[in-house]
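Contributing: when you submit paired examples, paste them exactly as shown. First protein:
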Amino acid sequence: MQEISFQFLKQLVEAPSPSGFEQPVQKIVREQMMKFVDEVKTDVHGNVIGIRNPRGSPRLMLAGHCDEIGFMIRYIDKDGFIFFSSIGGIDAHIVPGKRVRIHTRNGPVLGVVGKKPIHIMEREERKKVVKLSEQWIDIGVKDKKEAEKLVSVGDPITFTEGLERLQGELVSSRGFDDKMGTFVVCEVLREIVDKPLEAAVFAASTVQEEVGLRGARTAAYFINPQVGIAVDVGVASDFPEVDKKKEGEIRIGEGAILYRGANINPKVAELLMTIAQEENIPYQLSGEAKATPTDANVIQISRAGVAAGLVSVPLRYLHTPVEVLSLRDLENVVKLLSTFVQRLNGKMSFIPGE
């Protein structure tokens, strides 16, 4: 991966973007998109949409959501300890003992998540997951009055972990789900910047996916695409204790995940697979028998219907501060989608059976 692209990825994943508070990331995205498109629009929800060749055909929507899981301050007690709720799906197992940042109007405030120590827990307590409501954040103040000078009810919170290299092409960070998708969408725009296109390309960095696919729903209504591809992460199953009979076999470093199933237009799926085979781009297949929990879900059923597709990057340890992916997989997804964009033309029909 080029150093400039790696630095952009690092900038994205380390900027805070809990659902509903995506503005820092979307500012970065907007500045990046403006280098490669004819126009950039931002809607009332905060979706950022880069538009290239707007009069082309068909109208294509590429969507990667930029929001990450996080927390929100709900209550500050008399001693200045902060109680919080989750934004998105958080595994309560992993939260105690973590460093967090509270994002305030005046900048970030560092805190640590505390709970009753094991030394004073009853035997039965040790066997249970500590509920989020029984954990708290300590920012090092003496009382509520001092805490309220620094933070406020409603402030969003993220884990502190940033992008780190592991071995080979593997990297770890919080927020790959799915700031990685926004990264891919922007990199596709970079790849096609000087390429002739027949399709109209609307590349969207969508918001609030983790709390109900909300941004993609309104962005798809605005764009009114004929074809829509969501770019997200997919659950890798190449680590211990995963039942592949239930989850399928998906491995990091072995290419994009392509899908077949009810949420996927069969002609879009076939074109993606054909391109991957012709261009020697590695891919893996996943069968999804119902609607996927991704932006592809709401894109497909927008207005009178959209020929939807889903392309994912394999990811280990989703919704933790140490998500792991392969940079090579990222590059291959960018190559696949850049070629897909260039292959589209107005004569194509995506109606099944035609």
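Second protein:
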Amino acid sequence: MFAAAVLLFSCNGANANRPAVVTNSPSGSSAVPTYGYDVIKSYKHDKNAFTQGLFFHDGFLYESTGQYGASSLRKVEIETGKVLQKKNVSSEFFAEGIVLLDGKIYQLTWQAGIGFVYDLNTFSVLREFRYSGEGWGLTTDGKMLYHSDGTHVIRVVDPDGYKTVKTIVVKDENGRPLMSINELEWVKGEIWANIWHSEKLGKPNHIARIDPSTGKLLGWIDLGGISPDDIARNSENMLNGIAYDPEGDRIFITGKNWEKLFEIKLKTLTQ
């Protein structure tokens, strides 16, 4: 996986037909702000949902759940956590990130290199698409798709042919590759990213705020203590689900098999 990423990075300038690379080159350690949170409201969440992707649309949450034999696409009522609509994914696939663009839902799978495009209203499969490497997280700026693959690279993808047009290299505040970028959400011109096993960085259940034009790390959101009962049950029960309601300026977060979903508001802890 890492070798494939390195090949992507070396492409810039080598071939005009290959995707451009956007990278930031910090010199030494550079502090970034850390944000805390206030819980505005908590809601029920299906504890059997291994959350891999989440987005908000028209008053509802749409969720992609993973695991072989348990992967699905769901429409969820926020207030009750009730699953209003569900499309099971074939047991040969481990579903990952989802995003809505132009009335269609795009869903990645983990290692199969195959994704699905669904009709928003019916959840019927409109087509499949293919990509190299793994599929982890997915978001959009309203025109292009942004695809994470578990490395420190985010691919900017043309949704029509699912071709990578640019790659964004993300580094931490110390200039090291920020690996294991997972579920993504577009929030006010930034990419917010869950980091798989972020506790290995000394930052359990942290979200990274990333500048999509440069890959620069803009800050961390510390959600380490938001759902202690869920976190204690299983080491894989980590934060993995960010949804943003732009009209209501609401942020929703949850985790894999968490029993709650939280609406939060950020507050600055450090500068």
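If you have annotations for the second protein, write them as plain sentences, like these:
The longest strand covers residues 34-44.
Residues 54 and 63 are 5 Å apart (CA to CA).
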